[in-house]
Amino acid sequence: MKIATIGTGFIVDTFLSAVEKIDDVQCVAMYSRKRETAKPLAEKYHIHTIYTDLKELLKDPAIEFIYVASPNSLHYEHTRLALEHDKHVICEKPFTSTVEEMEKLMALAKEKQLMLFEAITTIHMPNYQLIREHLDKLGPIKLIQCNYSQYSSRYNALLAGETPNVFNPKFSGGALVDINIYNLHFVMNLFGTPDSIRYTANKHPNGIDTSGVLVLKYPDFIAECVGAKDTQSLNFAIIQGEKGYIHVKNGAHPCESIILHTEDTEVTLNNQTTTNRLYYELLAFNEMFKNRDFDRCYELLDYSHSVIRMLVEARKDAGIVFEADHKK
């Protein structure tokens, strides 16, 4: 798997570190509008080619995959261009700003028989699979609680009157799509699409959500998902059943360890060997690519579509409007 990256943020650093851990995965090029922005990462990971012209990168025949880690509002454009140039794509979460964008990308990928993945770490974690394997020990599920709160380094800038991308409706930012999406995936990959979803948010005057609470209603239980970029908290995920509960240490994002509580017993489970959360998703994507497993790829793509539908419904429920909502 020969990959090129779009973006130079901290997530790209983590991604390139994961690339180094997998023998048959290699980053062969980077794209940045300014060469000097990409140079530190290129030197750190011994990447010899930096493009400042995106179309030139997409014409490079040595590149098989594009990893899209640009601002949220550019995910659709960059992914579309990559697919149009016959490149497979790994796109950072959230996949797109709107359902319509997502559906166009799905259709294009399937038409051209290209792989298209959402880089959502949670569902590929070994410890997340442990949760799935032990759910039946809890009996009928009644409640799920998730909290992922992380005071953003950019929040002080917002308070000072600036508008960082992550808090900008123009760039499809906000706590829901940036941080609470992990909780949403945590619930939906285990239990499917809810009957209804509501989102109550703390909003900045510019209309973006800095924190909020998702409520997902299923036929027999309720899930509550808290995501905040304006406060800190104890992060956790808890699945409560009539016969016990599962506590996910430090929440849905890292899935650091699983504590299974049933009757008078408590068992701690952990199948993860690295703290680099992107390693496990990249391992899964590479395996599908090697095996040309398009069925599994498109199954995941259809699942991501269901999450985007719920994400957009929740965002609109809170009255959060992106610039992308006005585009056709």
Automatic annotation (TrEMBL):
The lineage of its organism: Bacteria, Bacillati, Bacillota, Bacilli, Bacillales. Residues 2-117 form the Gfo/Idh/MocA-like oxidoreductase N-terminal domain. Pfam families: GFO_IDH_MocA (PF01408), GFO_IDH_MocA_C3 (PF22725). It comes from Neobacillus thermocopriae. Transmembrane segments: none annotated. Residues 133-246 form the GFO/IDH/MocA-like oxidoreductase domain. It comes from the Bacteria. One of its GO terms (molecular function) is nucleotide binding. This is Gfo/Idh/MocA family oxidoreductase.
